[in-house]
Write a structure and sequence with these properties.
Blueprint (H helix, E strand, L loop, with lengths): L10 H10 L5 E5 L9 H11 L3 E8 L9 H17 L2 E8 L23 H17 L5 E4 L21 H19 L4 E7 L17 H19 L8 E4 L25 H12 L17 E6 L31 H16 L4 E7 L15 E2 L7 E2 L1 H13 L43 E5 L13 E5 L12 H8 L8 E5 L12 H8 L5 H21 L7 E5 L10 H16 L6 E5 L2 H8 L9 E4 L18 E7 L4 E5 L1
Parallel strand pairs: 1-2, 1-8, 2-3, 3-4, 4-5, 5-6, 6-7, 7-8, 11-12, 12-13, 13-14, 14-15, 15-16, 16-17
Antiparallel strand pairs: 9-10, 11-18, 17-18
Helix pairs in contact: 2-3, 4-5, 5-6, 6-7, 8-9, 11-12, 12-13
């Protein structure tokens, strides 16, 4: 265990530290060599002998074959997983595009003012679908890193809009959100590390080479985008379960204790800069932050870090080391095995005492043979097939075996600095608030029924709440006895007055959209077909409100989303239709409540498992099944009602 060696004054801080102090530092390797036949027999037994317990390997998405995982790659990864399991090694998969322009079409967008403006929406969704395909193909893997060094043009290009402002944060943010939802839809236990941040950037859109964004400024742009994205989409899920970073020192001659001189760049010793930037970017959003403050505790993975040793002239190595100069630092005393070993020992001791860091992966178990690659491994390349350990191999092994990955000194928690107390102006006398329901209005266990046009000639139950159908089974139709049923629903003692709207998407319905809704649809930063679908949902809501009448408005609207009505095979069109309905209903004053009636199988088939909602849910439990427990809903909102009953009359019970 990482032990607390100092008394913590604040109880909340102490609890947070104790919660994170339970897990020791995981030390592993980031290396794809395990998938190569030449390394297969040596790789995982060597990791096991050294005490290394995690290997991160890469799979890259090819936008020209967006649904393909090559058969030889599947075979190689399955072989790796079997060998790793035998050695007790966990495998995580790094997932990102093969080409830097895959998600941008190589085009800088005009502006990032709107949160869905930058990036190719179709390719972003295809990439997310591919990550889900990877998770289904390798069901024993539950840790995934999504995207890699988004702040570098080598991996996301262009980095900048035509105006010279950062666009890679929006592109990567949209991609990470889509992949997060896709991977969690496959298995809620999947863990998504985000971003793989590069340690530095020049923040120069006009740079001749390596035009890039520093990690601190990238996080600021990502946070600005995410806040706008949440406001527009009503997202309640985070972007990531943990932050993945690559804090290499470049040049590697940088002093370990001070790291980068620029406050916008981050080496191992500069991680608190990153924590502050992340907190500033995401505090108060659905994304948890890093640190021991309320809303913190997001884990950090140092998933790539390495110090290279000079290998020029050694047997088996070939090529030229481009970093063997002051810019790269791989020269002289800074490229010796002693320097590497000392640096790794200092890194492990520092990170073990940082309660935010869960993982550190050294880049490469053994050096690459070509000096144009990386020689940061714990072992030297060997032309005979059996790599030779460097001094760092013994240092890392002995540190792990003697400490168990636990802090040997004082824990170094992080919290954002407390802002100065503001001087507050005198409080104005508040106006009487408008009473708008903001919580579940149904008494738990309260019975009720839902009625609509099939019940026009049947007696309405004398007690219990009523949910009244507005339509005649389809959008743009009317329940001919809505007024009578609504009057019954409003009777004293009945409970909250709520209604439900039939919803659907079909091309033939598009001609029913209103000019006002078409204008709202055109303002959405999405493809034209998705704009039209949004306008359709808006128009369905407008039609239903006309049936209800201005003087008869309920406090709660339910959207009936089920397969008995037509829907597109394109999930994005269906989701846009539902979004248009929700936004149109929530635009009323006073603002009503909006919920969704559906079932898990219907919701998956219609929306693809859309999880960006936190709206109340109403679930069917089958004919005669109203006494069944509420159970889980179909997305991520609270379940307020469950429905059962008979073929002649639906019965409902509040949860």
């Amino acid at each position: 265990m990482r032990t607390l060696v100092a008394l913590v004054a604040a109880c909340g801080l102490a609890l947070a530290l104790l919660a994170q102090a339970q897990a020791s530092l995981t030390v592993g390797i980031n290396d794809d060599a395990a998938t190569e036949a030449a390394s297969a027999g040596w790789f995982f037994p060597t990791m096991q002998a050294e005490g290394l317990t995690l290997d991160s390997i890469t799979l890259r998405w090819d936008e020209t074959a967006p649904t393909t995982i090559p058969a030889d790659q599947v075979q190689a990864v399955n072989t790796v997983l079997a060998s790793a399991a035998q050695a007790g090694i966990t495998v995580e998969l790094d997932l990102y595009p093969l080409h830097a322009g895959a998600l941008t079409d190589g085009v800088g967008c005009k502006s990032t003012a709107k949160p869905l403006q930058c990036g190719d929406s179709v390719r972003i969704q295809r990439f997310a679908a591919w990550t889900a395909q990877v998770a289904r193909t390798f069901p024993t893997v539950h840790q995934f890193v999504v995207m890699n060094e988004c702040n570098q043009s080598y991996f996301v290009n262009p980095q900048w809009t035509v105006a010279g402002t950062n666009q890679s944060a929006q592109v990567c943010g949209r991609t990470l959100a889509a992949a997060y939802d896709a991977l969690h839809a496959v298995d809620p236990n999947n863990f998504v590390w985000g971003l793989g941040l590069s340690p530095r950037g020049n923040d120069n859109p006009n740079a001749v080479t390596n035009s890039s964004t520093s990690p601190v400024r990238f996080l600021a742009d990502l946070g600005t985008w995410f806040r706008a994205f949440v406001a527009q989409t009503h997202r309640t899920a985070p972007l990531m379960d943990g932050l993945d970073v690559h804090p290499y020192p470049v040049p590697q001659s940088l002093p370990f204790a001070t790291g980068y001189p620029s406050a916008d760049d981050v080496s191992v010793a500069n991680l608190p800069r990153l924590y502050q930037a992340f907190y500033t970017a995401f505090n108060g959003t659905p994304q948890p932050t890093i640190g021991q403050q309320p809303g913190g505790a997001l884990p950090v993975s140092v998933n790539e870090v390495g110090i290279q040793t000079s290998s020029t002239g050694l047997p088996g190595y070939s090529g030229v080391k481009a970093a063997a100069n002051a810019a790269g630092g791989v020269f002289g005393a800074y490229a010796t095995q002693a320097y590497q070993a000392s640096w790794y020992r200092q890194m492990l001791a520092l990170l073990a005492c940082d309660p935010n860091v869960r993982v550190v992966n050294i880049f490469k178990l053994a050096d690459e043979q070509n000096l144009g690659g990386w020689q940061s491994g714990l072992y030297q390349f060997s032309p005979t097939g059996t790599p030779k350990p460097k001094r760092s191999a013994a240092i890392v092994h002995d540190w792990i075996s003697s400490t168990g990955g636990n802090c040997q000194g004082r824990l170094r928690p992080w919290q954002p600095p407390k802002p100065p107390k503001p001087v507050l102006p005198p409080k104005p006398v508040p106006a009487p608030p408008t009473v708008v329901p903001s919580a579940d209005p149904f008494r738990p266990g309260a019975p009720g029924h839902d009625v609509s046009y099939p019940n026009c000639r049947r007696a309405i139950p004398a007690s219990g709440f009523l949910v009244v159908g507005v339509n005649g089974g389809n959008p743009f139709t009317a329940n001919r006895c809505f007024g009578v049923q609504a009057a019954h629903a409003r009777q004293r003692g009945r409970g909250p007055f709520s209604v439900y709207l039939n919803t659907a998407y079909a091309p033939k319905l598009l001609r029913r959209t209103t000019p006002a809704c078409r204008t709202l649809g055109a303002a959405q930063d999405v493809a034209p077909a998705v704009q039209r679908a949004y306008a359709l949902g808006c128009s369905e809501a407008a039609s239903a409100l006309a049936v209800i009448g201005a003087g008869n408005r309920p406090s709660l609207y339910w959207l009936d989303v089920e397969r008995s009505n037509p829907w597109s095979k394109n999930h994005s069109l269906n989701v846009a239709t539902i979004r248009g309905l929700i936004d149109a209903l929530l635009a009323q004053q006073p603002k009503p409540l909006v919920g969704v009636y559906s079932a898990s199988t219907w919701w998956q088939r219609i929306t693809g498992g859309w999880r960006s909602l936190a709206l109340p849910e109403w679930i069917p439990v089958g004919i005669g099944g109203v006494a069944a427990p509420c159970g889980r809903g179909f997305t991520n909102g609270p379940v307020w009602l469950r429905q059962g009953g008979s073929a002649r009359l639906d019965s409902d019970v509040a949860c």
